[in-house]
Amino acid sequence: MLVLASYTAALYAAVVIPFKFGLPLVPGATEVRPGIAVLLLCSFLFGPAAAWGGAFGNLIGDFFGGTLGPGSFFGFFGNFLYAYVPYKMWEVAGGKDIAGRRGFGWWWRYILVCWASSAICASVIAWGIELVLGIPTMILGGLIFANNLFLPILIGPALIRLVTPRLEEWGLTYRQVEPDHPRPAVLAPIGGALIGAAGLAAGAIMVVGFVVMFLPDWARHFMGQFPWIELLGRQISVGKLKYSGAMLAISPLIVVFIIGSFLLGHEKSGKQAESDSRAAAIQGLPLHGGKIALVDVTFSYATSDNPALKNVSFSVGPGEYVVIMGRTGAGKTSLTRCFTGAIPHFFSGRFSGKAYLFGRDLSQTGPAENADLVGAVFQDFESQLFSTNMELEAAFGAENLGMPRDKLLKAVESSLKAVGLAGFGNRNPTTLSGGEKQRLAIASILAMNPPLMILDEPSTDLDPVGKREIFDALATIKREDRPVILVEHEIEAARRADRIVLMRDGEIIREGAPLEIFRDPQLLLDHGIRPLDGVKLLCALGDSESYDPYGPPLSVEEQVDRLKQIGKIPSSEKHEALEEADESRAASYGDVIYDLRNLHHSYGSGGDALNGVSLTIRKGEFIAVLGQNGSGKTTLAKHLNGLLAPTKGEALFKGKPVTARPLSTVAREVGFVFQDPDHQIFSSTVGDEVAFAPRNFGLPEDEIALRIKKAMEFTSLEGYEDKDPFHLTKGERQRVAVAGMLAGEPEVLILDEPTTGLDRDEQVRIMELLKRLNSEGHTIIIITHTVWVAAEYAHRTVLLASGKVIADGPTRKVFGMDDKLKTARVQPPDITAIGKAFGKVFLSVEEYLGCV
Amino acid sequence: MYFYIERDGVLQRLHPNTKTFALLGLFGAALMVQHPLWALIPLLVALIALFTGGGARNALKIAPVAAIFFAASLYIWTFMYVDPRATYTWLNLGGYYFPRETVLSGLGMGVRITAMLLAGLSFLTVTRVEDFTAGLHRMGLPFGMCFGLSLSFRLLPLFVGTAVTISEAQRSRGLDLESGGPIARATKYVPLLIPVFISSMRGADALSLALESKGFGRTNPRTYLKKLPFGLSDVIALTLVFLLLAGLMRLRMMGYGGI
Q1: Would you say A810 and A795 are in contact if contact means Cβ atoms under 8 Å apart?
Q2: Which residues of chain B have a CB within 8 Å of the CB of A448?
Q3: What backbone torsions phi and psi does residue A321 show, to the nearest 5 degrees?
Q4: Which band of pLDDT confidence, cut at 50, 70 and 90, is reported for residue A545?
């Protein structure tokens, strides 16, 4: 519940402030803020957590807006009540499933709830602001009331319909998190009635008072026949003080609101939480030989019929470094969850078997209780950082364990040093790169000094620099006595392992030392792992004698030596033919569609993100833009569809500035897919999602239907039309995002990191799709960190560093520029390094094979 | 996004609760007087605090907001109210007559609001978020509540970034937020709000698990890395604020500071 409150607060502040548009009613002051509907939605979903979230959200909004003042107190209170009232009144008014069928019963309750909560919020805030700052109640109150009433009525039902089922699937609603939550008791309906009645009156006062202020003289004269209306707008003396009539009229209603809120909160208690029972269970547990082991574990998540783990038996010895690998859905993460107690205590489901952590029986202890024995680092680094200060972040876990302060100071210092973050001072983690954030998460665990460390895909969402930083950090966390379990897709991480475990469909398929596992590239491919280029090459050349008894050569140098030994040197003639093919392809492209001339872009502080970029792009090209984080790749891409305008220089599309046309018009010709497909998906079905762009373009429905069909066929999504996009895997959602772009039939496709976070099979699927699109004439521009993707698919590579283009040309030529690659901190694939030993540049194992 | 200025300044070193009480004291001082000339006292104190804390550029950032508040307040009190105590006309602008009390009320309210805004800004300039929440806990608020607030501060920049990215992503698919009437424009926010909500909430489960995995919620007593020393400078600061408040209160009782 604490997490839900914090999320509500941050979400509310994040959407209310930036998402707004103006109304000409009072220029510069009247704004419509649709984000208020999110708070109402949170109330129905998260109950009391949303009330605190609304209150905190208003406060932090004032912090970040620089408007912290006495009004913040009333904003805190008013927003608390705005989110407190709806979920309680809904229940009290006899409302059933908020996301259910909508008849008359649903609507009158919904409007009543919106009216009451808007009135109570607007009254409290406006009344308080007039009390301390003198701004008349009906001005601010009227505006707040109107915004808070009409926006939730207008867009709230759509939000509820589309969001609620997803949150329920994830088990995040109040009723699921607290199934035994208190229910309304006897006095609650009285409270609801009081709030309802007072709300109607307060709302009417604020609306009438606001309208009266702007009436022309003749209308005011008419209103003069209703003196009580005119009184609302008049200033009335109360002793030595003066207040508006509206404020005085609302004062008793606020008292009614407060009483009503207390009565509305009258509840019958639910069952007592069992939070202390598990912790107490740690004491005196029988130990089982100090082992770390799963014994015949089978587990199915509550939301799935298929077992995530099937009769898994697995153990880890002292100081052992074990890497678990496999496809998405193989059961890797589920296995590690058993060691923290997250399964079955955090993730409910059907569990059988036994799990031991240093002899502690994990059937009785959950993650919090086991934190003294196991430290876990997860894939999503943002979800593991809780503080606004690096040192506090590093200390957080150790503080929770009650580590004495003198030990704590030393632990924080040494853990930050161990991961290379010493000397960062009190920096806010928000300012760190992805790799630095993940290292901070590791430092936080190290400071707890756990006997076992588990890292679950710590590098998946990082760029190559970040990945290298993590793998280097792993070397420092290994200790003679401390076992480490790592879940990874990257073969680089597995090189140093003592043991590799391959999983598929919830079972352990194979275990062994790296040399034993790496020798069989097909085995790795079968498990969605990209084998080492050199090993794949040697196997394809039929060379397996070198694998006994020491295994295949794993380093590039050893592989080159082996190739020389077996006489598989690439032919210069055939390599020249590859270069000629590159040139003839380059000559076959169409007209120039993009012309960037001395492009500069500055975000305002700290220099130019783009520093004089000049390049042209022709129709039909397939371009990869490479460079490390902060080099300007995404900034460059955003100039191509008009999301950003140059601060100097020009970005021309077909001879005209990109920003000369509205973004919605450019979108018909230039499609942009962002890195995270979840940043675009919102519809309840895949079909509706894919239809979004053509509908925005105003196309007729039959044309839209045709485009949906075509786009979904192309992306192998036939049959998915009625599926919920959020039920799909990440790779499938990525394809939905691509289909959504294709339905707009753009000529140019720009994709930002299309393969990040996907396993190898999904990466290949996406790239093959783009290859087909390119073969049909689309211009493809991808921003990527994944060099093998650029090598095997892009015809042309643009290398960026510090906002400048340092290399631009056919991919083969650019990958041959060692000095430029070093400047850009881009490491080419192993096959390229192997080819260079022979004076050639190869972009794939297949190219090398074609040259011998 | 933060207003805090990192420096080893005297105000930055104060205990966060000293700064919180000083802020409340400045609010009280601003509310105590009505006459614009007297309201300049808390305004000046707030400005001194702001510049001592190194917040000159913060002042520039919120200058437009402060100007709007000042102008709105002046407008409302000068144009919209007829003060029943009005004595004589002070201003005559093209046929519009403004009594002395009305103009002074408007100016006074504008200066007071500006003083409070600057006081709040100076607090933000010299107070780290984590110190503020730690101070609240030292005051007796439950750790869970303080931690929840602190977590919200941590998450906000993340969610704002997500909201901006989602806005760009949907606009890249032809979503036009500028055209149409108020109702049409409001409904166009649904494709923005839903992905922001879903993307943000996706991390909630992971964050909860990460919290538990770091021992949050264990029953053993918790320790704290951060020490918040209370020293002589805190005593001096609180004394000064008390003197300001007490002084203004006494002057009000003697009939000064009003209109």
Answers
A1: yes
A2: 214-215
A3: -110, 105
A4: low
Q: Cβ of A474: how many Cβ atoms within 10 Å?
A: 23
User: What is the per-residue pLDDT for B201?
Assistant: 86
pTM metric for this prediction? 0.87
Query: Using the beta-carbon criterion (under 8 Å), do A21 and B222 form an inter-chain contact?
Result: no
Chain A contacts of B209, Cβ < 8 Å?
342, 346, 367, 378
| Residue whose C-alpha is closest to residue A58's, from A130, A121, A127, A1 | A121
Q: What is the mean pLDDT of residues A362-388?
A: 89
pLDDT given for residue A547 in this prediction = 54
The residue of B158, B167, B172, B228 whose CB has the most chain A CBs within 10 angstroms, and thus the best one to mutate to test that interface, is B172
Is the alpha carbon torsion for A693, A697, A698, A701 positive or negative? negative
- Residue A117, pLDDT > 60, answer yes
Match 């780290």 to its residue by tokens: B128
Inter-chain CB proximity B201 and A662 less than 8 Å? no
Q: Which of B183, B198, B222 sits opposite A166 (nearest CB)?
A: B198
**Cross-chain Cβ contact A426/B128 below 8 Å:** yes
| Helix/strand number for chain B, H first, E second | 9, 2
The alpha-carbon gap from A127 to the nearest alpha carbon of chain B, in Å, equals 16
What's the token pair of residue B42?
Answer: 């808390």
Provide the pLDDT confidence category of residue A815 given band limits of 50, 70 and 90: very high
Return d(Cα A466, Cα A385) in angstroms, integer. Answer: 17
With beta carbons under 8 A apart, name residues in chain A contacting B144: 2
- Number of Cβ pairs < 8 A linking chain A and chain B: 371
Cβ <8 Å between B152 and A9: yes
State the angle between helix axes of B190-213 and A2-16 in degrees (0 to 180), rounded to the nearest 10. Answer: 150
Closest-CA distance, B173 to chain A, in angstroms, reads 5
- Selected for mutation to probe chain B from A45, A400, A675 (highest B CB count within 10 Å) is A400
Closest chain B C-alpha to A453 CA, distance in angstroms: 11
Percent of chain A with pLDDT strictly greater than 90: 48
What tokens does A190 get?
Answer: 């009285």
Structure tokens given for A282: 């740690």
Q: Which residue of A has its CA nearest to B125?
A: A66
- With H, G, I as helix, E, B as strand and everything else as coil, classify residue B196: helix
Say if residues A160 and A99 touch (Cβ distance below 8 Å): yes
Q: Helix/strand/coil (H, E, C) string of A233-283?
A: CCEEEECCEEEEHHHHHHHHHHHHHHHHHHHHCCEECCCCCCHHHHHHHCC
If DSSP codes are grouped into helix, strand and coil, which group holds residue A669?
coil
The residues near A353 (Cβ < 8 Å, ≥ 6 apart) are A294, A295, A296, A297, A298, A299, A311, A312
Calculate ∠ Cα A166-A169-A170, nearest 5°.
90
Token pair for residue A641?
A: 């569809």
The confidence score (pLDDT) of residue B186 equals 85
Check residues A217 and A357 and name the one with the higher pLDDT.
A357
- Give the residue on A whose Cα is nearest the Cα of B160: A14
Strand-strand pairing, A292-301 and A309-316: antiparallel
**Least confidently predicted of A11-25, A296-310, A443-457, B74-88:** B74-88
Cβ distance B83 to A213 less than 8 Å, yes or no, reads: no
Q: Residue A358 belongs to what H/E stretch?
A: none
Residues of chain A contacting residue B109, judged by C-beta atoms under 8 Å apart: 133-134
- Residue A408: is its pLDDT beyond 60? yes
Q: Which helix (H) or strand (E) holds A404?
A: none
Residue of B nearest to A405 (CA): B225
Model confidence at A830: pLDDT above 50: yes
> Residue A679 is nearest to which of B169, B178, B213, comparing CB atoms?
B169
Nearest-CA residue of chain B relative to A441?
B210
Cβ neighbours, 10 Å, residue B84: 11
Indicate the Cα dihedral angle A336, A342, A348, A353, nearest 10°. Answer: 60
